[in-house]
Amino acid sequence: MTTPVPGGVASSPELPALLPGMLRVDPDAADPARRGRVRRSVRDWIIDTLCFVVAILVGLMSYDTAMQTDPPEPVQLLDLVAGAMACLTLWWRRRWPVQLAVVVTLLSIGVSSAAGAGLILMFTVAVHRRWAVAAAVAALGALSGLVFYRIYPDPELSFQWMALLTVFGIAAITLWGMLVRSRRQLVLSLRERAYQAESEAALRVERARHLERERIAREMHDVLAHRISLLSVHAGALEYRPDAPREDVANAAGVIRASAHQALQDLREIIGVLRAPSSDDDPDRPQPTLAQLPALVDESRQAGMRVTVVDELAGAGAEPPPVVARCAYRVVQEALTNVRKHARGTGVCVTLTGGPGGGLAVEVRNRMPVGSAGRSEIPGTGTGLIGLAERVELAGGSLEHGITADGDFRVHAWLPWPA
């Protein structure tokens, strides 16, 4: 069974909800004393029952050996009662393993039937606690075992042999518990790494979606801002010249209709990106290239702009890469759109220079308007150049814009053009 976690990643219910990048492989996290009260699973009931039975059997064997010295009956009865209580504490061994291990180990010095419970608790400490704590409890258990055989000597084996067997047995049980702990650490480590990989994959998907939304937003800004600015210019001409000849009004209305139709067409192509994921061969499918630059300039001239183009790329003998060509087209488009918005009536000079190995340089200059001519009648978001700079940087180039010493507003972009 899995439970959802933030970011759409599924995780097992016993796995802690950790931040990506954090790795916790301590099996102590599974200890009910550190997680709070939890309901035992079927597996826990089986293991706890088995441990309880083993503790009783080992305790009875130890009791039988110790009682060969024939102590008084009250001592024998008290030994059985204390041993039974020690075995009952095993049902809480996961909650307080160290505390119970210390108490039962000390109790087992004089209570022979508590030996089985003491060994189970030592194993539990080795599984759920660090090696230093487990070693300390094991040392206490070995010491209590030596004292026990001083009180209840074995009739068949010498004290030296019993001491050796006691130390060897406790060491084996402790090492076994540490081995189980190491295996649990490995399993938890693999679970944590799987969880981290799932979280990172979810973050990558979310990042890809975010970048795609940003790309589509830039696309809509570049395309629609250009078309709508043309519509505004032609509509403004009709507003200021209501007495214009019928032929001019018809031509302006035709341009408005064609621009609106083209804007809808461009919007339809952009929305198509939302419905079909981009491919690696054409990640920016709706964007035109420098081949459509003459049409862009003609549209601006029809809107009344005075645009001069200096194209020195014809002598380069090669075409720039598609990504570079698309980015260069967007630089010119955004610059012309800004001129229509903020510097209407000024002349614009577009210059394209460069070649393979030297990069592609795009420069758009226009005179700064004076007085009321600089007032923009077309609203803008003020983020066009910011988005354009990001687009150029993603293509590996750089963008500069600002007012020159000659009083011109200059937009200059450099884009890499491999040889």
UniProtKB/TrEMBL annotation:
One of its GO terms (cellular component) is membrane. It comes from the Bacteria. Its EC number is 2.7.13.3. It is an enzyme of class 2 (transferase). One of its GO terms (molecular function) is protein dimerization activity. Residues 212-278 form the Signal transduction histidine kinase subgroup 3 dimerisation and phosphoacceptor domain. InterPro entries: DUF7134, HATPase_C_sf, Sensor_HK_TwoCompSys, Sig_transdc_His_kin_sub3_dim/P. The keyword Kinase applies. CDD domains: HATPase_UhpB-NarQ-NarX-like. The chain crosses the membrane at residues 45-63, 100-125, 131-149, 161-179. Pfam families: DUF7134, HisKA_3. Keywords: ATP-binding, Kinase, Membrane, Nucleotide-binding, Phosphoprotein, Transferase, Transmembrane, Transmembrane helix, Two-component regulatory system. The keyword Cell wall biogenesis/degradation does not apply. It catalyses: ATP + protein L-histidine = ADP + protein N-phospho-L-histidine. Residues 44-184 form the DUF7134 domain. This is histidine kinase. It comes from Jiangella aurantiaca.
